[in-house]
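Please check the following for our workbook:

***
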Amino acid sequence: MRRRASLVLLALAVFFTALSPLLRWYAFPRLAKVPAGRYQTAVLEAKDATLIDYATLTPKKVSRLTMVQTLKGNVEQARKVKTATGRDVVVWDGLSYAAGPDGAMISRIPERYVFDAHSQQPVHAGGEHVDGTPVRRDGIQYKWPFLVEKRDYRYFDLMTRTSAPIHYKGTRTFHGLKVYYFEQTIPWTKVPLPRTLPLGITPDTVRQLGLERWYATRRMFWVDPTTGAPVNGEEDHREEMRWTGRPDKKPITAFAGHVKMRPDYVEDTVALVKSQRQLVLLLTAYLPWGFVTLGGALLSLSLVLEARDRRALAANVAHDGGKPERPTPDEGSLSRGGSP
């Protein structure tokens, strides 16, 4: 019975040890994915910013500018893309909405972002756009892949509608979380005007005035390395209206400010990420290492039982070999002096 138990324990040890890498390297990449129907909103603010007054085309100081970024999962469109490509995808219909201190709209830019639910890499299945203009994204946007690496990534910029490197700048602690800090700098670049502007102004109206829009920014993200979700984002954002063909004429500041995520949204985001990262750690660390430890413990117990069984068998053999044999009847009669 003891030998049979040791064989069972040995089989279980092999099973759990083999299950550990399968769970980490086979199951996790297939199970971990961004939900197709997720809806999320982030509110950012720029206090004491400079903003253009389109009525007079002059810059003015404002107490606060609010930017609302909304991402809504389009489940029906994701299902269509999966049917066409055979891949699990997420389709985010996004909206970047900027409002002044009085709540009046400054600009609104819709977009559609299609990406692989597992790797977060863009999927070019048609329909992706920024402000109605088709784009072909290269690299990530809004979210890093699961298990972020300490390296540079390519990150899509909404204003220029191109991708550029976003650089890993080190590991930091943010609200009790170990995070990776990334920075991206976009130099002054001519960019399209939003199709929707205040006071009924259109991009054609601005162009007829002989103005064009230029933009530069320094973008900062604090990213949870387990889930790939940013827990905080900031930008040093600059926009100018420059006179077409007149580099000598002073540009008009359209926007200048340091944009930060509102504190209450930071707290909510950190709490959400802390809960979600436990699910990722379960598949990448807790269960794999737990199975390896369990396999090692079962192997040790199996060897102990096998060693005990062998010692018991050896003891029985030694005991049986040292026991004197029972005398035969003839030998007994001779020893008592009887005749043969």
The longest strand covers residues 58-73.
